[in-house]
Amino acid sequence: MNNSLFGESGIQITLVLILLPILAGLVIAIIKTYGNYRELKSRRELLEMQKKIKSLSPEEVQRYEQRRKEMEYRLPENELSGNLPPSDEKGIISNVNTVEEIRVIPHKRGGIPQQYISPQSAKLILYFLGFSVLWLIVGTSVGEYLGIKFVAPDADHVSWLSFGRLRPVHTNLVFWGWASFAMVGLSYYVIPRVSNVDIFSLKLGWYTLILMNTAVILGSLSLMAGINNAGGEYREYIWPIMALFAAGIGISLYNFLKTIAMRKTKEIYVSNWYIVSAVMYVIVILLVAYLPFWQEGLAETIIQGYYMHQGVGMWFMFLSLGLMYYFLPQQLNKPIYSYSLGILAFWTQILFYTLIGSHHFIFSAIPWWMQTVAIVASVGMVIPVVAGSTNFILTFNGAWYQLKSSYTLPFYLIGIIFYFTGSLQGTVEAFRFTNLIWHFTDFTVAHSHMTMYGIITFMLWAFTYTLVPRLTGKEPPKFWVGIHFWLALIGLMIYIMSLMIGSTEKGLLWMAKKPFIESVVMMAPYWLWRAIGGTMMWISHFVFAYNFYKMVNKKQDVVIPRTPAEILEAKKQLQNTEFIPTK
Prior knowledge:
mainly alpha; 18 helices; single chain; Cbb3-type cytochrome c oxidase subunit I; transmembrane helix
């Protein structure tokens, strides 16, 4: 059975796709380890320099004063040439070919002059991101408790804390709380910037924030109280609560369209294509999922597949890709590799992603032709995924050296790699043989974390670390950003690999018609590793929250005094700290 299992193309492709982020993580680890070594060496050098500065004698201080004056001396422009104009009888000077750039330095695209974002807009964006961090902590804390329950199912006997009630609380909090708040908040920065105008209405943005928060709070409380939409994964909020969320998104859609209509640029940049389309799609998706007219019998199952997959692909993925088309070029200080590839990915994702919902119900009572269409469309998703991934990776060309010193680019790179591997793994999972093994097992949970966490969450972290310092002028501690990155990545790999391996064994047991309880007993160690990986991910979120706090508060960089002026200033500061006058 094992030989035939590894002989299947779907299994082989999945194994290769899982190895890719592991290899990327190893490469980043080598690069970042070297960077950390250099930083540690600099800190030690700083301590030595401070000791040396403290022990400076008056004669040494005097020499530094003299040397500072010498270095600050500037030669007058006519000191050597006099006041006479230059004579160029041979025409040598006027015929010199000028070089406007130093050619040993990589060319960097100059930024288009734009009006800086207003403090009021920055405040709105930071509130969106602040609430996104809050809901990430709350939502994943619920998920952490659920992971523990797999290992210790008798942890409690309270109805409000039962697995059936808490599981949708977790998924909806991270969907509509963490990811949605972050995406909408970041959109309120990107759309005005690429349109070169201020947002149409800040007041409408605050209305959106209030409505979305109200929906998330009421939805979570209602789910814990047992009030839900009776079925439908990811659409457990009852319709009045989800209507609040949809109203908030609708208000922002109007706000975005009015802003784009007022743009000072001729073209609509591809980021706005993705963002506006995603906002339009999520409203359509919610209407289709909650209107009762076509939800009878199998039709409800088909609608569920449509809603579940469109929510991920045409809301979270679509909007995050739009943000990537803005923030990645900004962070690398170079244009996107190919605008045409972005447009190709845009239209092919709309074409294929809207057809793949039924691949969740292979071998079900849904018409066979509809299942086949979903499988074919899943394969068609290779086009936008490869186009988008290629576009992002090739944008790194000539800028890979920045990975060594950047704390944000590893988040970008891992998000892009998971975009490629996670999306193609979803295509492979739609094959009939792999679906037969993995469906109804924890493999689906692993895949959803590979995409919603590996792609969406890593991308949103990258965008947050890029944007917030621009709004506040304060950088996060690089050490703790590194801790955040590695805890999240290693924890995620432990999480998904343990569940994928265990779920494959579980599926084979089912196919062999073994008693169900055998698969439950067999999964126990894999659920333990799931809890370990999940705990690492959960801890990383608190580190991220700390980093976010530091970005909106004061942070001091490590500056090693080197010039005479810096050394004298450091000497003065050290003396002031040692001799503080008392009242």
